[in-house]
Every structure is written in C-alpha cells, then in structure tokens.
Design goal:
mainly alpha; two-stranded antiparallel ribbon
C-alpha cells in the first residue's frame, strides 16, 4: 500500500482494522474464561460460576477488576526489566499473528477495495510461522528473570516443547502450500471454494481437511502444543514444578500470561478454520439464504455485498468458536502426558509423518489427483 497516496478515508480504514482486531481479541479472553468454567462444570457434572450476573456471566468481569486492583508485588530477587518485559512478549505476538488472517471477502465501496484483514501480506503463512516463534522468548525470559529454579525448569520445558512442535507445524503447512500454490491466506481460502468432487447435485468443496487430512491432524496437534494446553501443559505442570514459568508473577502480570494463552487459542482456532475449513467461506445453507434475501428484497449490489460480508463474518466466527470450544473440551477430557511421551510424540511420530505427508502430497499433485 502506497502510504503517500492515501486519503483521509484510507487512513481511517488502515488504522481502524488493527484497532478493531485488538478490541475483538480482548473480548475473547473474558468470554473464553467463562466458557471454560461453564464447560468444565458441564463435563464434570458441576454448576460452575452462577453467582455474579445471570449464569455467572459477570464473573469474568469481577475477576478482571480483582486482578487489576491487586497489589503488583515484585520479588526482590528477580531481574527487574526482563521480569516485567516477559508478559508483554507473550501477549504481543498473539495479537500480531491475527493481523494476516482474513475474516471476510473483499468489499468494493466507491471504487475503494476494503480487505477484511489488518495486513494483506503475500507471505502470510511465513509471517505466521515467524511471529508465533517469538512467543517462546517471553516464556524463556519469564523463567530466567524470575531467578527461581522451578520457574526456570518450567520455561526450559516450554522452550523444548514449542521448538519441537513448531517444526511439525511448519512441515504440516508445507502440504497446504503445495496444494494451493500460495503462501497468502486469502488465496488459500479462495482455493478452498473450488469443487473437489461432484456427486450429482452435491459438490464437495476442496477444503483443506479433505485434501490434507494428515496435515490437519498434525497442525491441530501442534497448535495444542504451542498454546501449552492440556494434554501439552507440561510447562505449567503444577504437581511437578509448582506453577511453571509464571510462578513469581501476580496481579496483572500473571493476567497477561493468561491473556496470551487465550488469545493464542483464538488465533490457533482461526488458523485451523482458515487453512482447513474454508475460512470465511459460508457454511452450508448460508449461500442459499443470502441469495433468497437478495432476491426477495431486491437489494442493490452494495447492500447485497454488505449482507455477504455479514454472512461471511458470521461463518468465520462460528468455525472459530467451534474450535475454541474444542480446546476446552480436550482440556477437560484428556490427561497430561509425561514429558518423555511429549517428546517422543513430537520427534519420533509427528515429525516423520509430516515428512511423509509432504512426499505423498507431491506424488498426488504429480498424478493430478489434487
């Protein structure tokens, strides 16, 4: 984008998109805290939060106020600057990653094309891999700057885990890149709107889950490991290392670590939806409903496009929400791995399978099967 040629409206759009994304991501945290508490209670046959507000909906707000008003105690033995910088380094990469994820198709208004993503980069997948790898620095810094052996042990576990599964994540994405011949997320979403198989009146789309089922399994597992969620929460293994890398943190600094985890969950869910489930492509029935509304109301082109964008945002939100619930579901269903099992899964199983998936994808492309 040529910044010098931008007018006032372009600047407003340019600045509004990242602000909007940040606001939405910040709303994800209290909502998911409530969903996690209610979901775990549902799975374990408990009530969950039910005191503050209807169905306990205001419990997350009360907890946020409590966390922000608690004493911000800094132990005397920590390395001050790095100790305070670590929580920020865990949150910022999560926000930055969402910048390249498209959540609706382009909209043309008054000759101006609006892209529904903060940054329409032509190296979107590479950007995601590079930014997500930065989160491990905040965790390592938190353990090291705390000057606590238990926190350091937690950060070392996390660094080994995240580096191990980042490799599998990157290799899993190679299959998607080979299949759709692009590293730009908008192109990958557009490629998934094509027809893979036509069965009479039913057209099966070329979704990533259909053309890369093994890559989907590897990528999803790696996302769980990268977000330190059960069964991959070894860096926070309370029964083994007290409380993990954030042992010496309290008040809002601890809250930033928690925010980083939930925002990373949202980003991971959005990536799974984008790469393997068509992203903002409408759910079955939405396209028909959109056409019926446009025809019945005789909507002009601009209003029809605005309605389309609304349906696409709703579809993207529904897919992302489903995977956010899956994070909760898995956490309260599957027990934690031992650390040797965690490493064996990453290096002895997932890495070889990821390499075989790349060779298989190349063979299928050569044969013209995908």
């Amino acid at each position: 984008m040529n910044l010098a040629a931008m007018d006032m409206i372009d600047w407003v759009i340019f600045l509004a998109k990242p602000v909007l994304i940040c606001v939405i991501m910040l709303q994800v945290v209290p909502i998911m805290v409530w969903v996690e508490r209610r979901g775990s209670a549902l799975i374990q046959n408990r009530l969950g939060p039910n005191r503050i507000g209807p169905l306990g909906l205001l419990q997350s707000l009360a907890d946020a106020i409590k966390m922000m008003t608690k004493e911000d105690f800094i132990p005397g033995h920590v390395m001050g600057f790095y100790y305070q910088l670590a929580p920020v380094l865990c949150v910022v990469p999560a926000f930055m990653t969402f910048a390249v994820i498209p959540f609706a198709g382009n909209l043309v208004m008054d000759g101006r094309t609006i892209h529904f993503q903060a940054a329409d980069l032509n190296v979107g997948v590479l950007y995601i891999l590079s930014i997500t790898s930065l989160a491990v620095y905040g965790i390592i810094m938190a353990g090291w700057a705390s000057n606590n052996k238990y926190a350091l042990l937690g950060s070392l576990r996390s660094s080994a885990q995240m580096i191990s599964y980042e490799l599998t994540m990157g290799l899993a994405l190679v299959g998607i890149i080979m299949t759709f011949s692009s590293v730009q997320l908008a192109d990958i979403v557009a490629g998934q709107s094509q027809t893979l198989i036509q069965l009479g009146p039913i057209a099966i789309p070329k979704l990533g889950i259909f053309v890369q089922p093994i890559g989907f399994f590897l990528f999803t597992t790696a996302v769980f490991a990268e977000t330190n969620r059960l069964p991959f929460d070894l860096p926070e293994g309370e029964s083994e290392i007290v409380a993990g890398y954030h042992l010496e943190y309290s008040s809002m600094k601890f809250g930033l670590f928690m925010m980083g985890e939930y925002i990373s969950m949202a980003v991971g869910s959005a990536l799974i939806s984008t790469l393997y489930f068509g992203g903002f492509q409408m759910l079955p029935g939405m396209g028909w409903l959109h056409g019926q509304i446009v025809q019945a109301a005789a909507l002009p082109q601009l209003q029809a496009d605005l309605l389309r964008v609304g349906f696409e945002i709703a579809s993207f939100t529904a897919k992302t929400g489903f995977w956010l619930w899956t994070f909760v579901w898995v956490r309260w269903t599957i027990p934690r791995f031992r650390y040797d099992q965690l490493m064996d899964l990453g290096w002895k199983f997932m890495l070889p399978v990821a390499l075989l998936n790349i060779f298989a994808t190349g063979f299928f492309i050569y044969k013209g099967w995908i």
